[in-house]
DNA sequence: TATCTGGATTGATGGCGGTCGATCTGGAGC
DNA sequence: GCTCCAGATCGACCGCCATCAATCCAGATA
């Protein structure tokens, strides 16, 4: 995969010729990138990132009624953010009676974390 | 910071009372979260994530003319994505003659990476 | 049954984001 | 000077997103 690039062509270049050979990019990486980008996109909002942070601090589950007073947004907006995180597979929820409890899916951030480091 | 939560209140709850005490969330974390969310947002697009991936594979710098044929998007759109990555502080560029060379800023992903793991 | 309540859903709105073609910019070469 | 080229920028379009108030739903309580 580690294609050596001819950098800094400087001069002597015919018309239409490119400065270097194109890098081939395997299709396998595309699906991989799409999944990681989906997770990153879900984390690309300060409130959602803080939500995940709170849920991770409490290794177990956290009731929605605890999360609402932490942010200056309406209850419906918070529910919307939690829904997005769940759609991205980052968190999941469980209802018990009137209350809903959210928790971080184990290994949900593993793939992106591994790529970043 | 690790506040013990009283989970599963079940029953015996007066009107207006919440199921548990609210978790205090330090303001310091908010600015921290905003910065990491900015980086995550920039990575929240498959093309941008692949761009960063290509730049990271080639530890040095990569010419834009190498990047264009890798994706099925116009040159202007690619330039737009590179601009977003640069605005987020993830990459930077250098012009030499007609060509522009992009590279990943060292430690740009460090903060988010540390938080994820 | 009726009433209350926590949370999800709906509808509306304003703004942001990805995409393109077209244009502009500045360096290279004639 | 002029022309050509790589890359950035502009203008426009369209769809998605964050937000809210209002509503709906289901479980609990009386």
Commentary on this structure:
2 copies of one chain form a homodimer. The first copy, chain A, is built from 5 helices and 3 strands. Chain A has 117 residues and is an alpha+beta fold. Chain A has a single domain (28-116), classed as Orthogonal Bundle (Arc Repressor Mutant, subunit A). At the A-B interface, helix 1, helix 2, strand 1, helix 3 and helix 5 of A face helix 1, helix 2, strand 1, helix 3 and helix 5 of B. Chain A binds a DNA duplex (30 and 30 nucleotides) through helix 4.
Protein structure class of chain A: alpha+beta
CATH fold name of chain A, please?
A: Arc Repressor Mutant, subunit A
Question: How many DSSP-defined strands of chain A?
Answer: 3
Q: Which residue ranges of chain A are poorly predicted, with pLDDT under 50 across at least 5 consecutive positions?
A: 1-17
Mean pLDDT of chain A: 83
Strand content of chain A: 5-15%
Radius of gyration of chain A: 22 Å
The level 1 CATH classification of chain A is Mainly Alpha
CA-based shape of chain A: elongated
The helix fraction of chain A, in percent, is 40-55%
Specify which chain pair forms the largest interface.
A-B, 55 and 55 residues
Number of domains of chain A: 1
CATH architecture of chain A: Orthogonal Bundle
What separation lies between the terminal Cα atoms of chain A?
A: 18 Å
Identify the CATH homologous superfamily of chain A. Answer: Winged helix-like DNA-binding domain superfamily/Winged helix DNA-binding domain
* Helix and strand sequence of chain A: HHEHHEEH
């Amino acid at each position: 995969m580690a294609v050596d690039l001819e950098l800094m062509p400087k001069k002597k270049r015919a018309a239409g010729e490119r400065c270097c050979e194109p890098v081939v990019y395997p299709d396998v990486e595309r699906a991989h990138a799409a999944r990681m980008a989906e997770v990153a996109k879900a984390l690309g909002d300060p409130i959602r990132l803080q939500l995940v942070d709170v849920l991770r601090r409490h290794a177990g589950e956290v009731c929605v009624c605890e999360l609402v007073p932490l942010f200056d947004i309406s209850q419906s907006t918070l529910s919307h953010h939690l829904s997005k995180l769940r759609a991205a597979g980052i968190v999941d929820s469980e209802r018990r009676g009137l209350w809903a409890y959210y928790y971080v899916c184990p290994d949900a951030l593993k793939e992106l974390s591994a790529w970043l480091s």
